[in-house]
Amino acid sequence: MGGNAMQPLANITPLKSVPRAGAIEVRSVGQVFKTSTQDVVALSEVSLEVKPGRFVVIVGPSGCGKSTLLMMMAGLRQQTSGTVTINGAPILKPDPDRVGVVFQEASLFPWLTAEENVEFPLALRGVAKSERRAKAQDALRLVGLDGFGKRHPHELSGGMKQRVSIARGLVQDPPVLLMDEPFAALDEQTRMTMGDELLRIWAATGKTVVFVTHSLTEAVYLADEVVVMSPRPGRMVDHLQVPLARPRTYEMLSGDAFGRLRDRIWRHIKKSA
Amino acid sequence: MTARALRRLIVMGLIVLWEVLPRSGAIPELFLPSLSSTLLSGWNEAAEYRQALAVTLSEVAISFAFACGGGILFGAVVGSLPRPRILIMPMISSLYAVPLVILYPVFTVWFGIGPESKIAFAAIYGFLPTMLSTAAGIQTIDPQLLLAARSMGATLSQRLVRVIIPAAIPTVLSGLRVGGALVIVGVVVSEMLISSAGIGYLISRYRTILDTPHVFAGVLLVLAMAVAFNAAIKWIERRCAIWRTGTQGGQRAAREITASPLQPAT
Asked: How far apart are CA A64 and CA B93, in angstroms?
């Protein structure tokens, strides 16, 4: 992350609308993939309740269905059984009013500038150019990219691309932000910085965040609650609270409480491996 | 010295050699007439060449329109639907190995020796690379981009207009470059074979009477046409420079397609 992209906390203006957060309810959700030879159970009987404004991290080894679960919350995939509701109404298809999604590879459109990328969801709904521009500016300022709006993705670093992607996820001010391993492709230092940035943005907007990762440290560092999943079949094996104070600091990483939480998650994962 | 300056120097050197070698007698004028006598004989028959150029250009333009339109449309369908892709792509790819020019006599039987047979032949010639690269361009679109668009509520037509088309532009352009070059080849070659008009016809007619300066004047015109076409496509590509730096998959596909043995098997 280039140092010049960092904004001091005081300069941050939250999005104009009142912060609102969403409640997510996942009720005995299952997913079965039918192949020609057999049925593969990707998810089995997953139930989870996320209260408004919480930062929930789903962690687990690859193949545990954590991304599948997230895609169901995003309405990008339909479960075989069970229900997913956000603010009381079921999610049957993508609904940008209720859910913003941030993907692993920032998934920015390379032919659009940063601000055009952020405006994209608004453009899809025919929002007027001036209003779009203003909202994109706000969102870019929120993620610390004021002044980078005219750049194309290839002119931005990996961390900056993810900031743009977060801005795009927040530009319609949805109550829920879903993040699918957003920092997995970043280097260690950038990843740490982006974690802190995300917590700052979360605190400023008050969104409900569901964050998928395979990093135990990242999970404990970011979360209010950690959901641990295990593969074959994908299921929930633990749901733990993280009682660490906020704001989180680098020093906490070496503390006893942090270590105990990480060990507990690790034991679950080791068992399932 | 930059590569660009060096390239210019080489071209200049070749032009000078073209003038000097035949004049000094190192190469007989019958084999290679000097540049000045080539230009002069072209100038003396300017009306004839102008007429021939008009015929050839109109044939190229119409064939190019068919090749582009058909290639892009067909390529888009084949690229986005897996079933036709599996069915058709191997056939199209093997067509490349066939020297299509052997079919040209058949085309003259079907369409006569007028412009129609040239247009049909050149259009098919240019259609193949355009279609293949469009199909590749559509196929190599990052599925994550489509997923992201869907997560933002994009409908199917919005995904087509705002994601698929812009993402496919660089590969389509590189296909047009190859397709356009082949259209020029197709028109000129067919004019040389069986015809009564056009630059290819002039070249071939002057060749039979061993009038090399007039042959080379025709060759120069074809050369100019190809260079101008290439410059036009490059200009468009530069205007889409943002696209080109964009999708990695698309760029790779574009390179593979232009590098594959596309050279006409005439």
From this structure: 41
Q: Which of A109, A118, A178 to mutate to test the interface with B (most CBs of B within 10 A)?
A: A109
Taking CA atoms, B243 is separated from B14, B154, B238, in Å, by 36, 21, 9
Q: Which of B152, B160, B239 should one mutate to test binding to chain A, selecting the residue with the greatest count of A CBs within 10 A?
A: B152
Extract long-range pairs of B201-204: CB within 8 Å, 24+ residues apart: B201/B52, B202/B48, B202/B49, B202/B52
Domain borders along chain A are 24-98+175-272, 109-173
Q: Are strands A81-86 and A176-180 parallel, antiparallel or unpaired?
A: unpaired
Nearest C-alpha of chain B: how many angstroms from A95? 6
Which fold would CATH assign to domain A24-98+175-272? Rossmann fold (3.40.50)
Q: Which amino acid is at B218?
A: G
Tens digits of residue pLDDT in A78-129: 999 999 999 989 999 999 999 999 998 889 999 899 999 999 999 999 999 9
Indicate the pTM of the whole model. 0.76
Interface contacts A/B by beta carbons within 8 Å: 65
Q: How confident is the model at residue A15 (pLDDT cuts 50, 70, 90)?
A: very low
C-alpha–C-alpha distance, residues A96 and A139, integer Å: 15
Report how far residue A167's alpha carbon sits from residue A140's, in angstroms, rounded to the nearest whole number: 6
Amino acid at A43: L
Q: A107 to chain B: nearest residue by CA?
A: B145
Local confidence band at B139 (pLDDT 50, 70, 90 cut-offs):
confident
Buried b (16+ CB within 10 A) or exposed e, B235-255: eebeebebbbbbbebbbebbe
Tokens describing residue A196: 């802190």
**Taking a C-beta distance cutoff of 8 angstroms, is the pair B6, B181 a contact?**
no
C-beta of residue A257 within 8 angstroms of C-beta of residue A222? no
DSSP state of A249: -
Closest CB from B144, B163, B169 relative to A103? B144
Q: What residues of chain A lie within 8 A of the CB of B144, using their CB?
A: 103-105, 107
Measured in angstroms, the CA of B248 and the nearest CA of chain A are apart by: 10
- Please indicate whether, in this complex, the C-beta atoms of B153 and A94 are within 8 angstroms of each other: yes
Query: Rounded to an integer, what distance in angstroms lies between the CA atom of residue A204 and that of residue A200?
Result: 6
| Cβ under 8 Å to B: A residues 35-94 | 74-76, 94
Query: In chain B, which residues have their Cβ closer than 8 Å to the Cβ of A111?
Result: 166-167, 169, 242-243, 246
Domains defined for chain B, CATH in brackets: 32-82+103-259 (1.10.3720.10)
Compare all CA atoms of chain A with the CA of B166 and give the residue at the minimum distance.
A111
Complex-level ipTM beyond the 0.95 threshold = no
Give the distance from residue A196's alpha carbon to the nearest chain B alpha carbon, in angstroms.
24
